Amino acid sequence: MMKNLKWGLIGASRIGAEWIIPAIRSTPGNEIVAVQGGDALRVSDYARNHSIANAFTSVEELLAADLDAVYISNTNEKHAPCAIAALNAGKHVLGEKPMATSLDEAKAMVALAHEKGLTLAINHHLRGMNSHRKLRDLVESGALGELVAVRAMFGVLLPQANRGWRTESAVAGAGVFFDLTVHDADSLHFILGEKFKRVATFTSNNGVSAEGIEDGVAIVAQTASGLTVQITESFAVEHAKTSLELHGTTASVFAEGVLLQSPGGKLELSIQGERQEIKIEHENAYPRVIAAFATAAQGKGRPLVSGEDGLASLQFAIAARQAAETHQVVEI
Ligand code: NDP
C-alpha cells in the first residue's frame, strides 16, 4: 500500500489552476496541501479559489511544511533555484518546462536529485498524449519504413492572457525557445527515439513578443542517425493547427492539432498519397504525468519525463538559440 503523496505548489499559475490541480486531485493517493506565490493577496485568493489549506509567500516557508513533493510552475527563471531549494529540503520535484534557463542549473538539478535519491521530473506532458504514443509506435515498429524527413509546426496565436512575462521579460526567459522549442525537442526525442546532434536556426519578431525577443523560430536540425528535421514555431500563427509529419520509405503520417495542452487532433497514414485516418482514443495527459511521478517518487518506476530528458530538451533549445545568435550550425 503506497502512502499518500502530499504536494506543495510553487507558483500560483494558470497551468496549475487549469490542468495540474485537477490532475493531482484526480490521481488516487495524491493531495495538495499548500501553495506559494509572491503576492500575499493573490496567493491567498488562489488558495481559497482552489480549496488549498495553506498559502505562503516564501518558498522557504512552503518547504518547511509537511510535504513530500512540489510542483514548480512560476516564471521560467525561478524554476531551477526553486527546484534546488526543494531537493535540498528533501522534496521530490515535478518542474515545469523549461527545467531551467541555463544548462549549468539544469545539470545541477539532475546531479542533486541523484545525490539525494529524489525524483526529478519535468512536465513535458505531450509524451503522455495517445497521439504521441501512436507516432512513437509507428516509428519503433517500422510501420513507416526508414524515416527520410520529419517536420514539426508548433504555431499558435498566443492568447493575450499568456503574453506578459512570456513575450516581454528576457529575465523571465521569454520567447519561443524556452516556451515551444523545449516541448518540440522533447516530443521529437520521444517519437524518434534518438536525440538531435546539430542545429541551425533563424528567428523573427512579428510584433507579438517585445522588441529583441523572438516570436518566430525556424529550425533545421539533424539527429544522431543523420535524419533531417524541420521545425517551425511561432506565437503569431493565427489560422493553422499545430502539426507533425513523419515521412518514411513505407508510409508517411500526418498529425494535426497534436501539440497543445488539450488532448485531441487527428492522425492520418498516407501510402502513395492515399490518406487513411488512424483512430486515437484521446486522453488528458496531465494525470499520466502525475501518476507516473507519484509511482517514481514511491520508488517504483520512472517519471514520464526525467530530469535527464528535460536537460536534453533544454540543451537543444539553448543550442538552437545559440545557432540563431551566431548564424552558425551548433553541435550539441
Ligand atoms: P502564469 O503567468 O499564470 O504564472 C506564472 C507566475 O506569474 C506565477 O507563478 C505568478 O508568480 C505570476 N503571476 C501570474 N498571474 C499573475 C497576476 N495576475 N499578477 C501577478 N503575478 C502573476 O504562467 P503559466 O501558467 O502560463 O506558466 C507557468 C509555467 O508553466 C511556465 O514556466 C510555463 O512555461 C509552464 N507551462 C507549461 C505548460 C505545459 O503544458 N507543460 C503549459 C503552460 C505553461 P508568483 O507565483 O510569484 O505569484
From TrEMBL:
The record's listing under Pfam families reads:
GFO_IDH_MocA, GFO_IDH_MocA_C3
- Per the record, the domain of life is Bacteria
A single MF term (Gene Ontology): nucleotide binding
Q: Which positions fall inside the GFO/IDH/MocA-like oxidoreductase domain?
A: 132-253
**Start and end residues of each Gfo/Idh/MocA-like oxidoreductase N-terminal domain:** 6-124
Which SUPFAM superfamilies has this protein been placed in?
A: Glyceraldehyde-3-phosphate dehydrogenase-like, C-terminal domain, NAD(P)-binding Rossmann-fold domains
Q: What is this protein called?
A: Fructose reductase
- The protein's organism comes out as Phyllobacterium endophyticum
